[in-house]
Amino acid sequence: MTENHIVVVIGGGQAGLSISWHLSQRGIEHVVLEADTIAHEWKDSRWDNFTLVTPNWQCALPGFCYDGDDPDGFMKRDEVYDFVRRYAHSFDAPVREHVSVTNALQGTEGGFDLETSAGPMHADQIVVAVGGYHIPTIPRFAEKLPKEVLQIHSSQYRGAHQFPSGDVLVVGTGQSGAQIAEDLHIEGRRVHLVAGTAPRVARFYRGRDCVAWLHDMGVYDVSIEDQPGGVGKRENTNHYVTGRDGGRDIDLRTFATEGMRLYGRLLGVEDGVLQFAPTLEASLDAADAVAESIKDNIDAYIEREGITAPTEQRYVPVWRPEVETTELDLAATDITAVIWSVGFRTDYSWLKVGAFDGEGHPTHNRGVTSVSGLYFLGLPWQHTWGSGRFASVARDAEFLAEQIGLEISAAQPERVVV
Q1: How large a percentage of the chain has pLDDT more than 70?
Q2: Which whole number is the average pLDDT over 156-178?
Q3: Does the keyword 4Fe-4S feature in the UniProt annotation (predicted)?
Q4: Which of 322, 271, 280, 282 minimizes the C-alpha distance to 193?
Q5: In the sheet where 335-340 sits, what is the strand order?
């Protein structure tokens, strides 16, 4: 028999749980389907020494806030996992674990027909809360690397203990790549790091965490439509910084002075020789420029608001490449492992509705699609900078819950939704 639900939420992470809380508050019948276990991504897809890069006080889910004794600190991997699971238990979220959705399409008489590992289901409305990072990306030319070189994606990285002795090549300097390079560096491994175009941000400036300044400045409240470049902002890479050991900058130039080898963009590999574009210096300068521009904005805010704050010397580069390496023969190095930290691609192949662009990304306005009853939650830059993180998922969930309530009231005028 087919199970019938008013709303089916797909995904049991912080986004799916947040919309579940709001639906519960409104008395809207629903179920949350989780293919694995609640918040498993925090446990299964982060390395051993992982920490949040946003301070704990930003972990404010609907009806549940960080309650530890270090609001300005940065929770570690297992602490985040426990935090999200405690949230689910705090309101007895109707989560069904180990239930995967293998197919979903619009029903012939409205709503959506779902094929799941627990049998067929029908939902009047569905909320897709599975994030935007599904399939790890590894370039095709990785196949040309010598067979004896161990290769993994950043989502599989747990620590230096995974690799044989020798050097490690990390490709990519987004948040994960930069932090993984730092982790290996701290563990005493020699790291070869391929720098991309990711910007960076200072951890602290003028007496406070930069996140706190940006929060007070309202930066996290600016909708994507009001951002320079509009929805194109969704393609931007997040700034690299770390919350490790109480939080600090990640400065690739400092790593270089300590023995890390830096390279420009990786173009490919031929006969065991890595080929790089001479983009390293430009990438480092661009990352620093973004960090300094954020400081400029903080300075302007402090002056405009008449805030008393300590002054601080600006950053001065501690290293520059004398000559950029454009070729590296692996046979002449001690590199025994490669970590690909070059992102993910989406996979909504199971969701057979006309709500995607030519690259497979959902088309939506604040999570509301053109398909009646279909919503997305927890996407990067869904509405604001914080949408894909703890910072703003509560606000996004509340907005969608209101839309769902309106949809139910319009379809069933006799049903009272509070």
Answers
A1: 97
A2: 97
A3: no
A4: 280
A5: 150-153, 335-340, 167-171, 191-194, 261-263
Dist CA 217 CA 45 (whole Å): 32
Distance separating alpha carbons of residues 11 and 246, to the nearest angstrom: 31
Are the C-beta atoms of residues 138 and 343 closer than 8 Å to each other? no
Instruction: Centre a 10 Å sphere on the Cβ of residue 321 and count the other Cβ atoms it contains.
Output: 15
Q: pLDDT tens digit string along 29-53?
A: 999 999 999 999 999 999 999 999 9
Average pLDDT of 334-345?
Answer: 96
Of 172-186, 212-226, 238-252, 319-333, which range is least confident? 212-226
Tell me which architecture the domain covering 137-340 has in CATH. 3-Layer(bba) Sandwich (3.50)
User: What confidence tier does 413 reach under pLDDT thresholds 50, 70, 90?
Assistant: low
Average pLDDT over residues 228-240: 74
Parallel/antiparallel/unpaired status of strands 135-136 and 344-345: antiparallel
Structure tokens at 404: 């769902």
> Cβ distance 222 to 384 under 8 Å?
yes
Instruction: Domain ranges for the chain, please list them.
Output: 3-134+346-411, 137-340
Q: Matching CATH topology for 3-134+346-411 and 137-340? A: yes
CB burial readout 223-253, b (16+ within 10 A) else e:
ebeebeeeeebbeeebbbbbbbeebebbbbb
Considering the domain delimited by 3-134+346-411, tell me its CATH architecture: 3-Layer(bba) Sandwich (3.50)
**Both structure tokens of 327:** 């070729």
**CA atoms 40, 209, 191, 146: torsion sign:** positive
The helix, strand and coil proportions of the chain, stated in percent and rounded to the nearest 5, come to 35, 25, 45
| Whole-prediction pTM | 0.94
Burial of 306 (0-12, 13-18, 19+ CB in 10 A): exposed
